[in-house]
Design goal:
alpha/beta, Oxidized Rhodanese, domain 1, five-stranded parallel beta sheet, about 15% strand, thiosulfate-cyanide sulfurtransferase activity
Length: about 100
């Protein structure tokens, strides 16, 4: 499983080269998320994993749930990148949409 940190993710976002999937639950996502992240809760991953493609970046609050999601997706043949430290490590502005 590939892993990058929040600083590396920030550079990718600035260069518009990141599709980010936030696997936190809806209420957590609404309380602030990395700009441009799409919400797909871990609790729904089994039903909706087909929405994720190779090369997507997976984030949660601290990196644990996103790591589990990446492992699950890898077992399904989808290679994703985990964001270590998650939203807690993000030092940029958060979106609240």
């Amino acid at each position: 499983m590939q892993t990058i940190d929040a600083g590396q993710l920030k550079l990718l976002i600035e260069n518009k080269k990141a599709i980010i999937i936030d696997v936190r639950e809806d209420f957590e996502y609404r309380n602030g998320h990395v700009p441009g992240a799409k919400n797909l809760p871990l609790s729904q991953l089994e039903e909706k994993y087909q929405e994720i493609t190779d090369g997507n970046y997976i984030i949660c609050q601290s990196g644990a749930r996103s790591a589990r999601a990446c492992q699950y997706l890898l077992a399904k043949g989808i290679e994703t990148i985990n964001i270590s430290g998650g939203t807690s490590a993000w030092d940029g502005q958060l979106d609240f949409d």
